[in-house]
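Dissemination and training. As part of the outreach component of the grant, students in the summer workshop were shown how a complex can be specified as a set of sequence lines and then modelled as a single object. The example used during the hands-on session is reproduced here so that future cohorts can follow it. Participants entered these lines:
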Amino acid sequence: MTFTWMASYWPLLLAGAAQTVLLLVISVVFGFAIAIGLAFAQVSGGPLVRYFARGYCTFFRGTPLLIQLWLLYYGVGSLLPMIPGIRQSLFWPMLREGFFFAAVSFTLNYAAYEAEVLRGALLAVPKGELEAGRAFGMSRFTLTRRIWLPRAIRIALPTIGGEIVMQLKATPLAFTVTVMDLYAVASKVRQDTLLVYEPLIVVTVFYLILTATIARVFRQLEAEVPVRR
Amino acid sequence: MAATQGILELLSPYPPGWGGTLLAGAVSTIAISAGAFLIGLLLGTGGALGKLSGNRPLRLVLDLYTTAIRAIPELILIVGLYYAGMDGLNRLLATFRLPEIEVNGFVVAVAVLGFVQGAYMTEVLRGAILAIPAGEIEAAKAFGMGPQLRFRRVILPALLPNALPGLANLWMSITKDSALVAVVGYQELALATRLAGASTKHYFIFFLAAALLYLAITLVSNVVFSLIERHVRRGQPKPV
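and obtained this result:
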């Protein structure tokens, strides 16, 4: 076991860790916002909206993330240049990057899983609390904003923590579309130095630290809003 | 109209269409998943019984196994174990002065994914065994059943209804995780699709077709598992 390569590769490792965290934060934040919409669509939407939301979740939960990523990067990516004027547009530099496609596909995928979790949590909010809100004369929107959604998120909190860790463990896939994340740095070290295990071990430690951090944050969040059992 | 014809030609199962390659990829995806699922089931049963056996060192080793496997990203595990497995096998052969062999990619993929599945299975099966009412196992002991007979006649039939939802989840995730062996270069559905896309430049059509194949696998599995669940729950009282 030799770790001398660490001396010259640590800036790259840190940059990789930053990319991994950035991908995770983007996909969780935007994915969660989409998930809220999808969950409400399934619980209280009309038949058409409900059908669409169900189909979305089934598709994204029923196919591998790798295929979704490649469908976007290779598939949509090869169709994009056909749109007239897109090469001259402001967004073109961003649309050429693997990072953009990784972020979008991770977001869409996370939204599907999170929507299922939230759907269950929305249904698990005690009926009495919603009725109490209605008895106070709250409008549908106020009721949702003040009681239904916050209570559902609290119920789902432990599961959300687990989902975020799962999402973190999925981020190395981004290296297949040229993103220089943690895992990509490890495989670059392998190519440069012919060491197989050492870079993987170092990168694994990074992932374990991130996992422990997420678990810790969620433990504190859960302690912040205790629930009566 | 011409476009639809083009798509049908691309996806036709006979060359120059790529449908055959995709279907062969789907078959090998199912084969890898099934093999890994079975190995995982064996490892998981052993792991669960070991964790519940009360043997401290054994439990420590098994705890390390399940925690490490479940905490490390699948891709890293698969790549790491793929090389470690190949490397370890060849070193083992070298110590016995046997020539190096090129291990079949299929065997390595199944072994690696099975080893990963085993960790998750251990936890699912452990939970399922713990959920069996203690009285049933004590009754079996009181009848003088040995550990093997007890496992076969009492524990196994009683744990299946508890474990089946978890096992179904694991099957769904293995069919999707098997796409990761594409990264180490074994040709299953995901890699076959990428090859088809690369040589025809019709990436979008092929990846969409592959996604639908995976979806079909998932949906059919759903039906099969709900049938199995109905079978193993046949003696249980219906929920009111």
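Chain B touches chain A at residues 71-76, 79-80, 83-84, 87, 172, 176-177, 179-180, 182-183, 190, 193-194, 197, 201, 203-208, 210-211, 214-215, 218-219 (CB under 8 Å). Students were then asked to discuss how this feature might be tested experimentally.
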